[in-house]
Structure formats: structure tokens, C-alpha cells
Amino acid sequence: MKRVLFLFCLSLLAGIFLVNPASYAKKFNFTYSIFFPSSHDQYKTAAAWAKEVEKQTGGRVHIVMFPGGTLTKAKNCFDGVVKGISDIGMSCFAYTRGRFPVMEAADLPLGYPNGVTASETVNNFYLKTRPEELSKVKVLYIHAHGPGLLHTVKPVHDLKDFQRMKIRSTGLSAKVVQTLGGVPVAMSQGATYEALKKGVVEGSFGPFEVLKGWRQGEVIKYTTDTSFIGYTTSMFVVMNKRKWNRLPEDIKKIMNDLSLAWVKKHGEAWDKGDMKAKRYSLRLGNKFINLSDDEKNKWEKKVSSVIDDYIKTASVKGVNAKENILYLKSEIKKMQK
Hints:
Number of domains: 2
Largest sheet: 6 strands, mixed
Helix content: 40-55%
Radius of gyration: 22 Å
Order of helices and strands: HHEHEHEHEEHEHEHEHEEHHEHH
CATH superfamily of the largest domain: Bacterial extracellular solute-binding protein, family 7
Number of helices: 13
CATH architecture of the largest domain: 3-Layer(aba) Sandwich
Distance between the termini: 54 Å
């Protein structure tokens, strides 16, 4: 009986390695373009994913990271992956506004309370919709920061203070700025520090973490709590489709499983980054401003038009915008519970 069992196990192992022996011997080397600097928590989280892929594939996959937009700039990252300039890339949908009409819905001011909720929600939204706009790449996963706040060089206590202020913003956050009466100025996070320092812009919309992760706490003086309108910026992690299709099935499964696990890890990194950055900013002497309830109502009323405008614009493109927004809101509530 023992001999029979031994022979059975031996044949099973032989079958595993003889299915496609070449796939177990072949090494796969990939490049990963990411706009975050190597010091940033989001870069470190992405690099940890790459290391874990290498570990779980027994070294058959090796991923070389290119931080700080050194391989492709943030706005060119998606096309860089499609064209094979990089094999994997992480950037924001918002940097190419209008190109991703379905995924744009995820960036609306829907009341995201934190990074974990935002990341899980936007990734689930992609899995539900799987929009054609992302069909040229293999989507590994999507994550997103916690609520975007208003960081400025002068105090903003109400809408009157905000009028005509030049605010760095991208994607639908630019619409939020415009609707509230400010002047949106599009630029990447990497360019924002110098723009604030030189007075090119007077403020920026972003999560708390930008004050430390991108050093913007050094060049702003105030943060106004706008978490009640809670917009986010969703970020893709995508892979060149041709390179993905060449991978053996066992490696694909490992990368898919790790990608699902890493959604929450990025969300947690966003939230930890927010807490660290808030403490950092306050130590620098920056002030935190809470709006009055009456003022919050005014801001919420104005920002609601951003959602209405998106529905009109996206519907013309054939997007089921209302249904998508309802799904996103329901996911946010589900995560909070």
C-alpha cells in the first residue's frame, strides 16, 4: 500500500513539472514605471508587491522599479505601458481627463472617508464594470487616496475666501475647484511644491499625505477640512497585454491573487500617510481649519453640480453614469459598515 501511495505521489509531481517544463525554466524580467518618488509610501507599497511576486514565483519573475517618473512621466504612463516603453505602470486616471469616462466616476466627490474605503471601492467598481477604455492593458489592480483636502498659503474659512484662488487640481477635482469659484491649474504632484513655493498656485487639493510625501507642508500654511465632500483620485496599476499573455497560467494566478491583496495594503498606506502628514504639518506650525455647518452646506450644494455635469457628459458617451454612481455610493456605505 505504501509503495502504491509513493508511486502515485511521484507520478503527480512528475505531471506537474512535465505539463510545460519550459514555463518553469523561463525567467521574466519586467520594468515598472511609477511617478511616486522612492521615498514615498506608495512607491514602497508597490515595490513590496513586486518583491512578493518575485518571491512567490521562485524568482521566475523579476521586476525593476523606475520611481519618480524616470521611465515615463505620470501623464504618459498609461500609453507607455500600451506601447511597451514600460511593462507595468502606475499613475492616475485624472492626468488624462476625458480618456477614461467610466473610471472618472470613481473620482467624484462622493464622500470617501479614508484610503481603505476608497481603494476597495474603486477596485470593486472596475471589477464590476471592466470598461472598454482599459481593454488595451491588463489591469492588475486599482487603489485610491482618502478624502482630498484644501491646502493653501492663506486661510480659507468660507467660499468668499476661496474666490479666484489659483488651485492645483487634476481631473474632476479641477471641476470641484471651478464650481466653488476657484481657478483650477492642472499639474502633477511632482511639480506642485515648486509651484506653491514660487506663487504660481495658491493652494492644492489633495489628501493629507501630500504635505509630507511630497513635502508640500513646507510651502503651505493652512489646511481646510473638506472631507465632507470627500473626492478621491483613483490610480491604476496596469501591465502590457502582450507581456501578460506570454506568462504561464501559474504566474498569472500568483500575480492576480497578490494584486487583490495589495488593494487594501495601498489603502492602509494612504491612511497611515495621512496621519503622519497631519502631525508633520502641525509640527511645522501650519493651521487646520474647520468650516461651520452653514458653510459646509454651501460647499456641498455647489459641488453636487459636478456630479450632475458628469452624468450628462458621460451619458452622451454611452456610459451608464447614474447606475455607476449609485453603485459607488452603495460600496462606500457598505465599507463603512
